[in-house]
Structures are given as C-alpha cells and as structure tokens.
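User: Run a structure prediction on this.
Assistant: Running it now.
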Amino acid sequence: MRAPHLDRLRRIFSTLLAPIVAGGCGIDEDLFSFDICDEDGTLHFVADVEPSMSVDYLDLRSVPGDYGDMTTILDAAGSPCTNAADPTACMEAFAALPTISELGMAQWDYFDYRLLAYTRGDEVGSVGTHAELDAFLGEIDAPGDAALVVMLGDSGHRIHCHDGNEVGGHAEGFVVFTRTGSGCGEGDHVKHHVMLVRGDGSTEILESKIVERADPNCAIGRLPPGLCRPRRARAADPVGDFFAEVAHLEAAAAPAFGHLARELALHGAPTPMIQAALRARGDELRHARVTAALARRHGGRPQRPRLQPTPPRPLVEVASDNAIEGCVRETYGALVAHHQARRAGDPVIRRALARIADDETRHAALSWSLAAWADARLRPSERRAVAKRRRAALERLEVELTRREHPRVEALAGMPRPDEARALFRGLQRALA
C-alpha cells in the first residue's frame, strides 16, 4: 500500500527543519535483493522466516510494558491451530501464552520487548530468549531468519526500511541493511551498515557509512474520548513535570488508538488502516515507557490515565475527533517532536525524541488517510461540520502557542519558544494548504 500522506509529511517536516546530511556516497544497495518492508516503513517478513521445524502459524508481537496489558501483533503468517486435532484446546493454549521475553532492542531507558508465538499441529509455543531463538531458527537459511537475528539481537542496529531492498544473499549467509544513531547529540551520527548474518547466527559489520552528521545543538499524541485529567504532584524540576504530563498523554493515546481501530472496523474501514491504528497503539505504549523514564530521571511522577468507557461513535464524530486530534494536534505535535530531537540540550532526551518523532509522523499520516477515507463517505453537511471543527482547533492551537514553557524545559527538552512555535505552525499550515 502506498503511503502518500506519510511521504508528504516527511517532505514538509524535512523542509521546515532543514536536517544536516553528510555528503559522499552511501551503502551500495545492489548488495540487497529482498524487500522485507511495507511501503509505510513497516517490517513485514515473518512469512519469509524458515524455522528448523515448519509451523502452521507464526507471529511477531510486542509484549506489554509499564502501561496496559495489551499485546500487539506486529506481523504474522498463517492461521493459528489450523492443523490441530483439537482446535478448541489449541486456541485456548495459544491465548494463554506468556508475555515475558528478553528479546528486543534496548531503547535508551527501557527495553522494547519482542516475542515470537507459533502453532504446529496441536503444539503451541513461544520464543522469548536467545537460546530459544537459536533453537527455533536452526540454520540461518532464509531472509526472514536473518532479519530476526538482527531485530532481536543485542547489537543496537535497526533494519533500515526505505524504498529499496533490505536483505541480500552472501556466500556466508545473508547481508542486512541496518541503521544506527539518531543524528542528535555530539558524535551520534546516523550511520548505515552492511551487517553479515552467517548461517550459524553470528554477525559481523562489513561496511559502515555516515549518512547524517549529528547536530550537537540539536505535545504529542492522540487523546481518547473519556480521558479524566488527574491532579498531579509537582516535581522540583520542571523537566520532570513536563515529561510526567507527556507520559500521561502518551499512555492515554494507546487506548485512544485501540478505540479508534474498533470504530474503524465497525464502519468498514480498509484493513491496512485498522492495522495502522493497532500498530500506533503499540507505539504509544512504548512512548509512554520512554517518557515516563525521562520524567522519573528528572524527579517527575507520571500517572496512569483513567478513562471513562465510551460507546462507538457515528462516523461523523470519528471524523471530527480525527480532524482535531489527528490532522491538527498530532500533526503539529510530530513536527515539534522532530524540533525537540534536534534542539534538546539533554542527549538522552534527543535520542528518545528522535524515535518518537518518526512514529508520530506515521500516526499523523494515518490521520490524514483516515480523513480522506471518511470524507468520501460523509454527507456534504457533515463534511462542512468536520471542516468547521478543524478550523476551530487550528485557531485554539495557535492561541495556545503563545504560552511559554519554563526556560529549563526549552533548554533541556528542546521545546520551541513561542516565536519559534508560531513560525513552525504557520509554515506547516502553508505547506498543508
């Protein structure tokens, strides 16, 4: 599926923020011949995994963290229990699989946990340790095997999803196109690498290139209906207060996307749009963990969100909420996150916000895709009502941008000053007009 809204937002943000890119040649992409990513930059390779013993079903999931108890399926292949002699017992065992894992990737102040789950006849199992992964994969003899070794390893490398291919064959196994660095903070250059994954699972970096030199001087998320705003204990450090509030909102955004996914399904939205909302739910859980850790690092005390249950809404209400929270606040919030990732004086904050900014850009693109889909299904009077609410949200946001954050929040967390915020806001509005 093409992602025109995501491509457009990336171009706009890149223009408004003018990132510093290194010159010279990058990695030779002719080394790679397998594309394991979707058009929106989502890894999609589980179908290319070849375990030591074949399975009927395999999925890669994000397991619960500090917020919520939801397990998010990131990618899957096959149908669970499809060849079981007792399908009911098999599905019950599958639903009861543990959500504990040591696999994943370290992300600054937390660990982004991953778990594999599978069925094979009546057998149900999970893979959550390096020893289990080695036994499950056996010889690394498929592109998906190599991708799992990189993604679930401890190297800190991320698979570089882009317009080309990401995995290629090699005489000793496979090569994988990886990326490290955030581009924010002294010496934290963004680098592309050729990582060799041998048949026995061992790895080696064959080549590295700097593609973006680090910049040493380098209100996010969707709110759900029914969110109860708590009274918060104030921290001595305003940065702790700032990230405690951000963590609260990020945690609230996770059920917001879950609620949105259910509503989209009820209104007959395309499956990729529903899946994007579910993926965003998992992203927001991870963001909540990161920002909660940042809050605690500066003396803040993040609180879990309290939500009042809300029934599914008519499509016009879904579209109106999306116009306000997604097309206005989330889109501007993604731009601000990119600004923070370049300007925050604290290198830990810069690195954390770099990942969050990429995710939030994808969430904003989902909002614009949803808006276009819903617009084609609303009556003219409903479309006018949605447009009116979006204009009102823009006016409210522009007024809010006159409020200045504490100077310490501007310095360490990279929040723009009011004049900078208004310039970003107006530039974004011109680009989106």
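The longest helix spans residues 238-266.
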